[in-house]
Amino acid sequence: METTMSDAWLAEETEIRTKAAPFGVASRDYLRERSGHDFLNGMNTGETPPPPIAELMGFVLIRADHGEVVFQGTPGRQHYNPSGMVHGGYAATLLDTAVGCAVHSTLPAGKGFTTLELKVNYIRGMNDKTGPVRAEGKVITAGGQVAVAEGRIVDANGKIYAHATTTCLIFPI
Question: Which NCBIfam families is this protein grouped with (predicted)?
Fold first, then answer.
């Protein structure tokens, strides 16, 4: 039987989930003492708890490099709006997470961020047959106080569902 890209993505997600710590919120001190890159990568080693929003929405961090991150989720009926499609908030949440964490991955210890603006463009709808999707975030520029990032949601065949840009404020924590 041939393994599809979708199957490979789901297998990678399963492997990552087996190493993850229970969902939770890291302390301010824990966050303050780690670079954004180390903090995020700790989610895949079991050192940093994945956030409760990831449990609620059913997504997981796949990879965090300097300035680039990838999250994965599989949209399902639990994400539907009343018209029988995945709610736009699902895509917006995945994209906000990906672009924000892309910014976070560039920050040194002692720095944090918050979203000032998020712009999402929806290309096509998702449903419970879409399969796994990945939200890919990438920093465009990061300065001492402001960072800008872009992101997109794609399926295992490379089909794009939504894209976004964000502006984030960087500050000491």
Answer: unchar_dom_1 (TIGR00369)
